[in-house]
UniProtKB/TrEMBL annotation:
Limits of the NodB homology domain: 91-271
One GO MF term: hydrolase activity
Keywords: Hydrolase, Metal-binding, Signal
Protein name as it appears in the record: Polysaccharide deacetylase family protein
Amino acid sequence: MQKDHLFTRRRMLLAGAAAAGAAGTAGAILAAGGEETAGTAAPAGGPQARQALKPSAFRLQPLTGYGPPRAAPRKLKVRKEPILQISGRGRRMVLTFDDGPNPAYTPHILDTLAKYDVRAMFFVCGECVVDNRELLVRMADEGHVVGNHTWTHPLLTTMNRKEIRSEMERTSDVIEDTYGDRPQWFRAPYGAWNRAAFQLGAELGMEPMAWTVDTTDWEVPGTDTIIDRVEGGAAPGVVVLSHDAGGDRSQTVRAIREWLPYLIDSGYHLTVPSRRPT
Ligand SMILES: [Zn+2]
């Protein structure tokens, strides 16, 4: 099962790499605080890297002396504000769905995204993943990006650092185990960020992603209201927040069937953000 899944994932990545030139993903990211991601590039191998090795006959060469370590965690800058929108040319928007996966709603949203060949981001809770692993496998197979939304959806601002780390780390672990990759994006429940969340997110290799337009579907305001919020808020770079769990989300499911084709007809390219290459 796991092996098949990883194979599928790899196939997707290869297919994605081939298509990247044409469709591409959104480029640079705009942070609310104006800070840019600064990946620390691994030192290049080559002549300088080898200079240190003196030609003494029986010197043991360190195993790490042949280039950058393969699995070195990428150092991320600790932000002070989450990312609120994406930059880049054209009419690009990002769709995000929080709090799932949920077998009652997530499959319908995935069906609609598949119908229009659109990729989205799903910020999942670890405790929901354990009972619905097949939905994460489907997200991976269909090219969606899975982000970390903690294990139990707590208010992080009321917790100590150790508790926050546990919420985040367990979730990254179950995502990696099921989806095939560790998440590169984190979203704080309720949009309640604190310093520890930014620091731990960076430590765990995740950028903090917030949103620009809240559909307010969590208030269950009626399908038409949700549609109006998305269509009225549409603009280049906008990140849309919806929910595929955490309550009755049938309005969300119905609304996306209306607003998604509207956005596409309006010339929007629904995309997922790429991380700045190292
Ligand atoms: Zn949430």
